[in-house]
C-alpha cells in the first residue's frame, strides 16, 4: 500500500480547445496542509475536481491513497467543500446532516450531528429549514457536513470566500484542529495571509502550470504577491 496521500503525474486537462491544466506534477504526504494559489482561470477548481474524482484528466495519472480518486474506498476518506453546496433547502439543518450520515453510515449519528453543529455554531438553528439560512450559514452547514464522517483528506475550494470575519476565524480554528488530528488538507484561496497562517506548503498555478512549489516561509507573503500576483488582474 502506498504511503502517499496524493500523487499527480503529468496531469493535463482540456475542455475542447480550452486548456485548463498542463503537466501538473504534485505529491502530497499524509498530514500535509497545502494551499493552491493562482489567479482566476488558472486551473485550481479543475485540479480539485480531478483530485476528488468528479472530473478525469485528459492526460496523466492521479492516485488518491494509491488508487483511482473515484474508487469506492476513497469515498469515506474524502471531504469536499466547494461552491456547489448540495443542501436541501426544504429540509432542516439536522435533516440535511442525517441524510449524509445515512449515506456514509456514520456511527453514533445523533452525537456526531450535535458535535459538528456546535463546531460551526448552528445549534440554535438546527431545526430551521435551510431555505431560511443566509449564504454564510449554508456554507457553515456544508463545513459541518464535510466533517461528519471524519475524513482523512479535506479538499476545499475557496472555502473562505463569502464568510464574514467571525466565520473566517471559526473555519481557521476548525482547519487547525483538523491539521492537528493529522488530516491531509488541500485548499485553494485568494488570501495569502490565511494560507500563510495555515499551510505547510504553497503551490502556485499560473497559466495552467505549477510555477512555484515550496514550504511556507521560503518566500514571505509580500514577495509571493509581487512575484505572482502583482500584475493586472492580481488578487490579494
Ligand atoms: N466545464 C468546463 N468547460 C469548459 N471550460 C472550463 C470548464 N471548467 C473550467 N474551464 C476553463 O478552464 C480554465 C480553468 O478554470 P478553473 O479551473 O475554474 O480555474 P480557477 O479555479 O483557477 O479559477 C478556465 O479557462 C475555465 O474557463
Ligand atoms: Mg476556481
Write the layout of secondary structure elements.
Blueprint: E1 6-15, E2 18-28, E3 33-37, H1 44-51, E4 59-64, H2 72-75, E5 78-81, H3 93-104, H4 109-119, H5 135-147, E6 153-157, H6 165-180, E7 184-188, H7 192-198, E8 201-206, E9 209-215, H8 221-228
Parallel strand pairs: 3-7, 3-8, 5-6, 6-7
Antiparallel strand pairs: 1-2, 1-4, 8-9
Helix pairs in contact: 3-4, 4-5
Bound molecules: adenosine-5'-diphosphate (ADP) and magnesium ion.
Magnesium ion is lined by residues 44-45, 157.
Q: How much strand content do the residues show?
A: 25-35%
Provide the list of bound ligands, each named once. adenosine-5'-diphosphate, magnesium ion
Largest sheet: 6 strands, mixed
Q: CA-to-CA gap between the ends?
A: 40 Å
| Radius of gyration, whole Å | 18 Å
Domain count: 1
Q: Mean pLDDT, rounded to whole units?
A: 93
The CATH architecture designation is 3-Layer(aba) Sandwich
Looking at CATH, the homologous superfamily is P-loop containing nucleotide triphosphate hydrolases
Number of strand elements: 9
Main sheet strand line-up: 5-6-7-3-8-9
- Coarse structural class: alpha/beta
Global outline: globular
Element-by-element helix/strand order: EEEHEHEHHHEHEHEEH
CATH class: Alpha Beta
Discrete helix count? 8
Helix content: 25-40%
Describe the structure.
This protein is an alpha/beta fold and 236 residues long. It has a single domain, classed as P-loop containing nucleotide triphosphate hydrolases (Rossmann fold, 3-Layer(aba) Sandwich). It contains eight helices and nine strands. Helix 3 packs across helix 4 and helix 4 crosses helix 5. It is globular. The termini are far apart. The model has no long low-confidence stretch (mean pLDDT 93).
Amino acid at each position: 500500500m502506498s504511503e502517499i496521500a496524493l500523487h499527480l503525474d503529468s496531469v493535463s486537462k482540456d475542455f475542447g480547445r480550452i486548456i485548463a491544466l498542463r503537466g501538473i506534477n504534485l505529491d502530497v504526504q499524509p498530514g500535509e496542509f497545502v494551499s493552491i494559489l493562482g489567479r482566476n482561470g488558472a486551473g485550481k477548481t479543475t485540479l480539485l475536481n480531478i483530485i476528488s474524482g468528479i472530473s478525469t484528466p485528459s492526460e496523466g495519472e492521479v492516485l488518491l491513497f494509491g488508487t483511482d480518486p473515484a474508487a469506492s474506498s476513497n469515498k469515506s476518506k474524502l471531504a469536499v467543500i466547494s461552491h456547489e453546496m448540495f443542501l436541501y433547502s426544504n429540509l432542516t439543518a439536522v435533516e440535511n446532516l442525517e441524510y449524509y450520515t445515512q449515506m456514509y453510515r456514520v456511527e453514533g449519528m445523533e452525537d456526531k450531528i450535535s458535535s459538528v453543529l456546535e463546531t460551526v455554531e448552528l445549534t440554535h438553528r438546527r431545526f430551521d429549514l435551510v431555505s431560511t439560512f443566509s449564504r454564510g450559514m449554508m456554507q457553515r452547514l456544508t463545513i459541518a457536513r464535510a466533517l461528519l464522517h471524519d475524513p482523512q483528506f479535506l479538499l476545499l475550494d475557496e472555502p473562505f470566500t463569502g464568510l464574514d470575519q467571525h466565520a473566517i476565524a471559526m473555519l481557521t480554528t476548525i482547519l487547525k484542529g483538523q491539521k492537528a488530528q493529522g488530516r491531509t488538507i488541500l485548499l485553494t484561496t485568494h488570501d495569502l495571509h490565511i494560507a500563510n497562517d495555515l499551510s505547510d506548503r504553497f503551490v502556485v498555478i499560473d497559466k495552467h502550470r505549477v510555477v512555484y512549489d515550496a514550504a511556507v516561509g521560503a518566500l514571505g507573503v509580500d514577495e509571493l504577491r509581487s512575484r505572482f500576483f502583482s500584475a493586472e488582474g492580481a488578487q490579494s
